[in-house]
Amino acid sequence: MGKLLIVGTVAFDEIETPFGKTDKILGGAATFIGLAASQFKVESAIVSVVGDDMPKKYLDLLSDKKIDLSGLEIVKGGKTFYWKGKYHNDLNSRDTLATELNTLADFNPIVPEHFKNADIVMLGNLHPSVQLSVINQMTERPKLIVLDTMNFWMDNSLPELLEVIKHIDVITINDEEARQLTGEYSLVKAAAKIEEMGPKYVVIKKGEHGALLFHKKKIFFAPALPLEEVFDPTGAGDTFAGGFSGYLAETENISFDNLKNAIIYGSNLASFSVEKFGTERMEKLSKEEVDKRLHQFKELSQFDIKLK
User: What Rg, from alpha-carbon coordinates, does the chain have?
Assistant: First the structure.
């Protein structure tokens, strides 16, 4: 059983999509990563910060999933990070209506002593200097450091982002961000440029069109499962990251072939996340449901062909 350290936000989201809207609900990158990783036999811990306005029932939900919360700082009198957004009809684009950093503005991550030797570190979407601070606290070089980031940091903290990219093994970004980071329209050329920045592996997410894995001259493509209904894509990317890193932590195998499996497991779990608002679908997801859908993924992408 591997150790997985998760760094990211535990937050409040308020979401509106064409299918409805919510009040303040549980969200945040670390939350979705943790819930997805809990599907695997791993020791996991979250490093994050919240205010004392975070309801105990949400923290209990994470603890009940066997997620170590000793690295979750609760600021007395503080308010938890809050995001409000509205999705357009295609669910691929959205407008941010409100962002309140609150306790996240002064977040100084403290890695618990018993997780400073974690096998895999999953750096959720946060300021690059916070991500680098976590790397510097590790007593042993993790077998794999996975970084998730976004165009906001490319626009506002590019030097710091480029510095943290030097120290990681895997980066996960979407196609638009890969093009912005490299100035290349071709995703093959973009991935090659990103590898030159430091990472051994580049994962480019394409939303409802699946994900690409690049390593040197090797490329793997994983489809996304076509779904009848998509209610809320907010946590999909983080759920993908949690499935990806959770599978690798359980199997303790970081070969290219096993990363291909991890992409499938991540995509599989992300397909559940979008079926309900917030964390609702992931909270009660059963192993039987996960396994059944994995078979659907296999049927979707497997074929026999005779080559001459």
Answer: 18
One-letter amino acid for residue 284 of the chain: K
188-237 pLDDT, tens digit per residue, is: 999 999 999 999 999 999 877 889 999 999 999 998 888 877 889 999 99
Phi, psi at 64, each rounded to 5°: -65, -20
Of 208, 183, 251, whose CA–CA distance to 4 is shortest? 251
DSSP alpha helix (H) spans, 16-127: 29-37, 56-64
Q: Which domain holds residue 284?
A: 3-301
SS3 of 197-256: the string is HCCCEEEEECHHHCEEEEECCEEEEECCCCCCCCCCCCCHHHHHHHHHHHHHHHHCCCCH
CATH of the domain at 169: 3.40.1190.20
pLDDT value at residue 306: 81
